[in-house]
Antitoxin component YwqK of the YwqJK toxin-antitoxin module (Desulfovibrio litoralis DSM 11393), 279 residues
Amino acid sequence: MKLYSFALTVFLALCFSVNTPKAFAQDACPLTEAEIKQNKAFTLMKDEKNDYYKSENFECLYWENGKLRAETPFVAGKKEGLAKVYSESGQIVTEMPMRKDKAEGIIKIYYPNGKLRGEASYVSGSLEGLTKGYYESGKLQYERSWIADKLDGLQKTYYENGELKEEIPFVSGKKQGIAKEYYEGGKLKMEATFVADALDGVAKVYDADGTLATETPFSAGKLEGIAKFYKAKKQIASVTCSGGKAISGVYYKTDGATEPFTKEDLEKVEALNRVFKFK
């Protein structure tokens, strides 16, 4: 998934929104509230959240400026067909195919200029298959794989130039395996191993030139072991960690002397687990 609000637009499509709107037509919602008020096929309905208009085959929701906000097609009392959500300016925001009250098919979300922003595959109301997000330039931004509403498979994010930015393996909705992030240009930025969504093993961060910068040990999601820090291929510090806490640390000076970590330094080490969250 940085969109309009994927959740909001999908919610509107599910609740309110198969054809291009035509004024006074019963196969779609009229373009404006002024038009629908003159159409005897529609009745004004009120609930706690919104006023909307309902006919035998459509529910229509309008913006305060009178333009169509969402339309939902019905067949035999159930949502059936292509539900749509529009911006206040009249641009299409979301298209959601419905079948028997559930999302079924490819949902599409658009930028204000009409370009495709994201698409997701649904089966019987659940995410199933690929979801994709796009930059406004049309380049692929991310792709996610879903099984029964859970992330499953290698999820990938891309820089706008097409280079791989991040890859995260999922199994049944949880991170499982080695996640990686890359610099533009293709060099590895960081890598971490996950077991059932928890960091486990030695997580590593690399400088832009490809040299190792840090090694941070984790066990069941908590800091555990000796963390090591490097500069120009030389170790410059180490920290003993246990139970998620940085217990003690030492800096190695170029003259061979050492200097202990301060409390503030240790707290920074403890914050390293946030670096490797990978979303």
Notes: The radius of gyration is 26 Å. Confidence is low (pLDDT under 50) at residues 1-8, 15-25. The chain is about 10% helix and 55% strand. The first helix runs from residue 6 to 15.
